[in-house]
């Protein structure tokens, strides 16, 4: 297990989507609710070389609700900073104009939080939820050897204080058959909470815990959790205003698609030339595990993040091990998860150099820049006796034109072909999707012309199959593309 913090925006998106979908452990207090509407999460990244004003202008197009007349917002950095309220990094009840101003004063600027200095680049803007102090609660779930603890206090908010001392606790044993009854949960966690919200809160806790398990969280804290009664105080609505979460990164194979779908454009209510809501291996983007506050992205990661910010397509790159010998150039969030997992399963996790993906129909030029960056990093890693491996692949794209993106990849290969040969790089291509035949034919021809050590496969080769074939010399019946 590798517990990694996630962005607040991602944690919220996952909760919002899966709260009504993850299976509850036992029958809850309320009938299954309708699915939540897409969450209003304006997640804003401010790259070094882009004017912050233009990021904010673009946000108005992506998130039209920012311009709703009279709307009020919360703005805050989303960079794994604890106790933002105490550090003056939380703006509440602001109009969009005020929120913009607040963000502009901080975006791209260094700030010292306790002992750590970092640059503020990632912000979250959300609707402000007016509520009273006494409607603020605190809930925390964390995993220990003996099971998962759920902590709850009826006094949440910035000044929650010593939670360990004052929170009510319940242990969920490892054997979920012993999951507590609704009555036990209410009696243990909610003695200080008005009776009329018990049903709603127990249901929320049951569902929250279901998501925690289903999506392999290892830590989840909501503070404040706001419970606003309806007009006649018979029921209430629940809002998770501030959230910190860790997720088990090694669960990517099992959960990658769940994390991705909750963060896809359809789930977030964003208009794109999207996938019509269908879940497939191209569902992206993959969940990112941001660096701790104060650790800046490497130059290459920042460059790709900047490219990504400028386009509707998705371009993601995380360098896991700059000295690694196995590199991936993969289209689609789902596929990148499958590759990473297959490489780890083959016993090469330590050698996996990068993680990332391109999807959402990037142009030929964008793909070229993306590919060039990955290949440059590959060539910068120390040469190895056993050579290097580059996987060029993806699932079955529906919207990314394989022929055109492969033109970008081929251009990148062409520029550094002799160096790739020097580094004894074996290239394994597997791709399907619109115009894949043309793409595969071209990359095969270019590889042969450039004397690259390249193998090219079409959809007959499984994404998970090509990895053991490449790394372990496993047998395969699948013929290379174009072979009789
Ligand atoms: C939000 O700000 C407005 C003034 O802009 C004020 O009238 C209102 O009371 C504030 N709401 C809360 C909940 O603080
Ligand atoms: C995506 O492509 C697959 C395979 O061609 C097809 O079965 C599926 O219907 C497509 N999905 C969408 C949303 O177009």
UniProtKB/TrEMBL annotation:
GO cellular component: succinate-CoA ligase complex
Keywords linked to the UniProt accession: Acyltransferase, ATP-binding, Cytoplasm, Lipid biosynthesis, Lipid metabolism, Nucleotide-binding, Phosphoprotein, Transferase
A Pfam family the protein falls into: Citrate_synth_N
Biological processes per GO annotation: lipid metabolic process; succinyl-CoA metabolic process; tricarboxylic acid cycle
Enzyme Commission identifier(s): 2.3.3.8
Family classification: In the C-terminal section; belongs to the succinate/malate CoA ligase alpha subunit family.
Protein's name according to its UniProt entry: ATP citrate synthase
Protein localization: Cytoplasm
SUPFAM superfamilies: Glutathione synthetase ATP-binding domain-like, Succinyl-CoA synthetase domains
PANTHER family, per database record: SUCCINATE--COA LIGASE [GDP-FORMING] SUBUNIT BETA, MITOCHONDRIAL, SUCCINYL-COA SYNTHETASE BETA CHAIN
A single MF term (Gene Ontology): succinate-CoA ligase (ADP-forming) activity
Gene name of the encoded protein: ACL2
Predominant place of localization: cytoplasm
Organism from which the protein derives: Orbilia brochopaga
Catalytic activity of the protein: oxaloacetate + acetyl-CoA + ADP + phosphate = citrate + ATP + CoA
Residue stretches spanning the membrane: none
Residue stretches making up the ATP-citrate synthase ATP-grasp domain: 2-259
């Amino acid at each position: 297990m590798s517990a990694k913090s996630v962005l607040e925006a991602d944690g919220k998106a996952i909760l919002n989507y899966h709260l009504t979908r993850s299976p509850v452990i036992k029958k809850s207090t309320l009938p299954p609710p309708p699915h939540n509407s897409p969450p209003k999460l304006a997640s804003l990244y401010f790259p070094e070389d882009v004017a912050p004003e233009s990021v904010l202008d673009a946000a108005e197009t992506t998130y039209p609700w920012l311009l709703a007349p009279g709307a009020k917002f919360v703005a805050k950095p989303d960079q794994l900073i604890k106790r933002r309220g105490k550090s003056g990094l939380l703006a509440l009840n602001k109009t969009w104009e005020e929120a913009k101003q607040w963000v502009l004063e901080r975006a791209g600027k260094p700030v010292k939080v306790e002992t750590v200095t970092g640059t503020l680049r990632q912000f979250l803007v959300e609707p402000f939820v007016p509520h009273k102090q006494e409607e603020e609660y605190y809930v925390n779930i964390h995993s220990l050897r003996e099971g998962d603890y759920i902590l709850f206090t009826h006094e949440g908010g910035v000044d929650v204080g010593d939670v360990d001392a004052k929170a009510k606790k319940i242990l969920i044993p490892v054997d979920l058959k012993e999951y507590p009854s609704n009555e036990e949960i209410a009696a243990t966690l909610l003695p200080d909470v008005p009776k009329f919200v018990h049903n709603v809160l127990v249901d929320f806790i049951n569902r929250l815990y279901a998501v925690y398990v289903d999506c392999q969280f290892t830590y989840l804290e909501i503070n404040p959790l706001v419970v606003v009664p309806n007009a006649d105080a018979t029921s209430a609505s629940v809002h998770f205003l501030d959230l910190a979460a860790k997720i088990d990164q090694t669960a990517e194979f099992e959960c990658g698609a769940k994390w991705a779908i909750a963060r896809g454009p359809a789930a977030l209510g964003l208009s794109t030339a999207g996938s019509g809501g269908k879940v497939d291996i191209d569902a992206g983007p993959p969940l990112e595990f941001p660096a701790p506050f104060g650790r800046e992205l490497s130059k290459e990661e920042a460059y790709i993040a900047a490219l990504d910010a400028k386009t509707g397509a998705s371009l993601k790159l995380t360098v896991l091990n700059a000295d690694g010998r196995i590199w991936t150039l993969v289209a689609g969030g789902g596929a990148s998860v499958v590759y990473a997992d297959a490489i780890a399963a083959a016993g090469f996790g330590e050698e996996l150099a990068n993680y990332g993906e391109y999807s959402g129909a990037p142009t030929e030029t964008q793909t070229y820049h993306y590919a060039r960056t990955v290949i440059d990093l590959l060539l910068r890693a120390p040469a190895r006796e056993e050579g290097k491996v580059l996987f060029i692949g993806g699932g079955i794209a529906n919207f990314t034109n394989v022929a055109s993106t492969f033109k970008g990849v081929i251009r990148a290969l062409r520029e550094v072909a002799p160096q790739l040969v020097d580094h004894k790089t074996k290239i394994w291509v597997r791709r399907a999707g619109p115009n894949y035949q043309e793409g595969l034919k071209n990359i095969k021809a270019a590889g042969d012309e450039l004397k690259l050590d390249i193998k090219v496969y079409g959809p007959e080769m499984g994404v998970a199959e090509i990895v053991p074939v490449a790394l372990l010399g496993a047998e395969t019946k699948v013929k290379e593309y174009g072979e009789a």
